[in-house]
Design brief:
The protein has 243 residues and is an alpha+beta fold. Helices cover 51% and strands 18% of the residues. It has two domains: 152 residues, no CATH class; 71 residues, no CATH class. The chain contains eleven helices and eight strands. Strands 3-4-5-6 form a four-stranded antiparallel sheet. A two-stranded antiparallel sheet has the order 1-2. The longest helix is centred in the C-terminal third of the chain and has 27 residues.
Length: 243
């Protein structure tokens, strides 16, 4: 992953404005990994995708995440900072080949979910149905006492076991933060989504850049491309002189 320039931030923001969050994640990655096709990025496991998004955040905005959350007990706002290195799973690389599970006469071979798989369940409100569809997408082979069977024939407990093994083998895909409310001392866990968090940061930065372009273009008549080509320090000096 490489650092996004101001121009690229605006391009990503404009392209991702009307996109679904799944597509936005790929749009952000594609901008920082020009050597890979969008389809290749969509085939990354969710953990691999999120790991790259964390790297992109660190390269573009720095190694610290300033996060805000609301206490589920008193609704108070909790603000805290997390170092990306604390949640970046670098040692756990998803298996290159299929995963297997053998129990009670069942033998399963399956792969880890990717963005294309998630796209098939985003409209599903029933978690059980969504989990079964995801299992069907990722299941490569299923046998019961040596006989091939369909996903529909798998017990729900076995589907849940598949989901648990997927999470175990792709740990970056689901990051939970343990939080403590300083007001009421309520403890809870927050599921952290780097794709949503990074997009929010890009949205704020894009609007700030457009505001800076507007002020400098009004004051000096410069083109947008010339203003964005300046370093942030130089651009800020001109903004300070404009007042």
């Amino acid at each position: 992953m490489r650092t996004l320039t101001g121009q690229e931030i605006l391009q990503v923001w404009e392209a991702g404005w009307a996109q679904h969050p799944l597509d936005r994640a790929l749009t952000m990655l594609a901008a920082a990994a020009p050597g890979q096709t969008r389809h290749d990025l969509a085939l990354l496991t969710i953990g691999q995708r999120d790991g790259y998004l964390l790297d992109l955040y660190a390269q573009t905005f720095g190694p610290q995440l300033a996060i805000q959350a609301h206490c589920p007990s008193c609704a108070g706002q909790v603000e805290f900072t997390v170092a990306i290195g604390e949640i970046r799973v670098v040692a756990c690389i998803p298996a290159a080949g299929p995963l297997t599970h053998v129990k009670d006469g069942y033998t399963l071979a399956f792969r880890l979910p990717n963005s294309l798989d998630l796209a098939t369940i985003v409209q599903r409100s029933d978690a059980v149905v969504a989990r079964r569809i995801l299992a069907a997408n990722c299941l490569l082979r299923a046998e019961h006492h040596g006989e091939l069977i369909d996903t529909d024939a798998l017990p729900e407990a076995l589907i849940e076991t598949m989901a648990a093994q997927m999470a175990e083998h792709d740990p970056q895909a689901e990051i939970e933060l343990a939080l403590l409310c300083p007001s009421c001392e309520q403890r809870w866990t927050l599921l952290f989504d780097i794709a949503t968090f990074l997009w929010a940061k890009i949205d704020v930065q894009a609007r700030r850049l457009l505001h800076e372009v507007h002020r400098l273009a009004q004051a000096y008549g410069w083109r947008e491309a010339d203003i964005l080509a300046m370093s942030a320090v130089r651009r800020q000096l001109y903004l300070d002189m404009v007042g």
